[in-house]
Amino acid sequence: MLSGVKHIILVLSGKGGVGKSTVSVLLAIALKECGYKVGLLDVDLCGPSIPYLLNLQEKDVHQCPQGWVPVYSDQDQNLAVMSIGFLLKSKNDAVVWRGPKKHAMIKQFLTDVYWQDIDYLIIDTPPGTSDEHITVMENVRSLNCDGAILVTTPQAVAIEDVRKELTFCRKTGIPVLGVIENMSGFVCPTCSECTNIFSSGGGQSLANIADIPFLGCVPIDPRVGQSVEKEQSCVAKIPDSPVTAVFKDMVKILTKPIAGAEDGTAET
């Protein structure tokens, strides 16, 4: 089922609460706005937040002869989404599963979803380096997996956990595309001034030490969260946001080696 997917990017973090799912959504939207066909797979089985972040909670997954059909927004057919959140009877249902059942579900997500022909598949993973990650790695390592993006926040405790995620990637043979520092300051919606409410520079420092690319600092901009929940693209609706600038630059970095190299793929 992944044979029609040209590129796969994993989004990883060493701990929860760093905004990994938000980064996954914004990256998928930024790629879509640049003309790519994008799939977004949520394999965070215990905390599936992708449907909420895209205001798709009421959508259902359907079957076709080829497998599961991913969910599409009513406003755009260039972004396909799959999450266990679409399979739960209620958004308040908890997934209380042991490792083998999680393994089986993730494998089914990676083999039974009919993505058709898409340019990029963004896989939003749970925090840590547990069974779910090993299952994903085993299934995508031999495919067109470009690599992983590591998400951290500026605090030292988050950066220390991301170091472990970096070690995990190197042990499993997954290339690291870069690190992004999320929640790097707060953008005032009135004056647009950015204030560092945490420390800053941790992501850049980690990238320098580990000799991996630094993809940018993403500040907290309340307008971005509001636009995403309304199924609106912050890239198109809020061009003046520093968040928009960061993700536009990130898309250029991630697609530069293949921009224009494939038929039907837009240049950035």
UniProtKB/TrEMBL annotation:
Gene Ontology cellular component terms for the protein in this record: axoneme; centriole; cytosol; nucleus
GO terms of molecular function: 4 iron, 4 sulfur cluster binding; ATP binding; ATP-dependent FeS chaperone activity; metal ion binding
Keyword Cytoplasm: yes
Cofactor binding note from Swiss-Prot or TrEMBL: Binds 4 [4Fe-4S] clusters per heterotetramer. Contains two stable clusters in the N-termini of NUBP1 and two labile, bridging clusters between subunits of the NUBP1-NUBP2 heterotetramer.
SUPFAM superfamilies: P-loop containing nucleoside triphosphate hydrolases
Residues the record lists as binding ATP: G14, K15, G16, G17, V18, G19, K20, S21
Keyword annotations from UniProtKB, A to Z: 4Fe-4S, ATP-binding, Cytoplasm, Iron, Iron-sulfur, Metal-binding, Nucleotide-binding
Protein family: Belongs to the Mrp/NBP35 ATP-binding proteins family. NUBP2/CFD1 subfamily.
Name this protein carries in UniProt: Cytosolic Fe-S cluster assembly factor NUBP2 homolog
Source organism of this protein record: Zootermopsis nevadensis (Dampwood termite)
